[in-house]
Amino acid sequence: MFQNRITQLFQIEYPIIQAGMIWCSGWELASAVSNAGGLGIIGAGSMYPAVLDEHITKYKKASSKNFAVNLPLLYPDIEKHIETIIKHQVPIVFTSAGNPKTWTSILQKENIKVVHVVSSVKFAVKCQEAGVDAIVAEGFEAGGHNGREETTTLCLIPAVREAIQIPLIAAGGISSGKSMLACFALGAEGVQIGSRFVMSSESSAHENFKQAILQANEGDTELTLKELTPVRLLKNEFYQQVKAAYQNHADKTRLEELLGRGRAKKGMFEGELKEGELEIGQVSAYIKSIKSAKEIVEEIWTEFLLEKNRLSLL
User: Fold this and answer.
1) Which of the four, 106, 188, 203, 209, has the lowest number of CB atoms within 10 Å?
2) Are residues 141 and 253 in the same domain?
């Protein structure tokens, strides 16, 4: 049985973590991943407190395995999410988009493991100083909200590994056992995967969004809106509006007006492909099937072991 610091920290079979993606990762996906031996995550960033409570309750009925909640620290009603997490004794919390010092010690006092997502060496060091239990270092290939530095996973992981001593999870552009093994060679002890799990049958992403991803080709995503919060988008009519705004030298206020509210829900959850915000990673160009979360976990792990063995024989 495979064991390392990540499997021991999370008490899971495989060091494969499903990303906490807004509008795509509810209790159904999280429980399927955890039941398959990985770590499922409920994405709380798009949920009202009562909705998060419902998802955790449903998760516990569907799985007895460890799971996590992803909590963007910029969430406006974060105190209520913290209350819900503590009430349900959620074992692990993945935080992002904010200062990890704010909540880490409070959660750890409740015996909750805390992992923070970063996109730079600078913030990885700050997270270690804040006392988090592990770090996710996410390269700019990743979908959704991302770092302004545009540091790729290939460059970021070895640099972060050199700078910190605590367990390290790689994210960004990972969808197979081969890419997982590459990250391990660079110093990661686990991988966090988003786009591939968006394309699972248990994902709450709209079928229209999934079909658009199946049609995606190389170059069909781009990191944009850095003046607000950098986000990697699948190119559609909304993206073209953003591009035109930049060509017309739009300022931050104009970009905020263009983005408006609810575009991510409209695109990813409701399936509005023209005007919605379609957040997905570069690796979407190479995902050509929708499979169950169990199949995805098993395929990644099997390929990881086969490639590891093949390379050992060279």
Assistant:
1) 106
2) no
Q: What is the pLDDT of residue 313?
A: 83
SS3 15: coil
C-alpha 202/C-alpha 245 separation (Å) is 36
User: In angstroms, rounded to a whole number, what is the distance separating the alpha carbons of residues 95 and 128?
Assistant: 13
- CA 38/CA 293 separation, integer angstroms: 10
Assign residue 10 the CATH number of its domain. Answer: 3.20.20.70
Summarised one tens digit per residue, pLDDT across range 127-146 is 999 999 999 999 999 998 88
Q: Note whether 274 and 155 are same-domain residues.
A: no
What range does the domain containing 61 cover? 5-204+286-312
Task: Identify whether residues 218 and 193 lie together within a single domain.
Answer: no
Q: Are residues 30 and 178 in the same domain?
A: yes
116 and 200, same domain (yes or no): yes
For residue 11, how many other CB atoms are within 10 A of its CB? 12
Query: Could you give the number of structural domains in the chain?
Result: 2
pLDDT per residue as tens digits for the range 141-169: 999 888 888 999 999 999 999 999 999 99
The 8-class DSSP code of residue 172 comes to S
One domain, residues 60 and 132: yes
Is pLDDT above 90 for 260? no
| pLDDT tens by residue, 63-108 | 999 999 999 888 888 999 999 999 999 999 999 888 999 999 999 9
Q: Residue 240 is inside which H or E element, if any?
A: helix 237-247
Does residue 278 register a pLDDT over 90?
Answer: yes
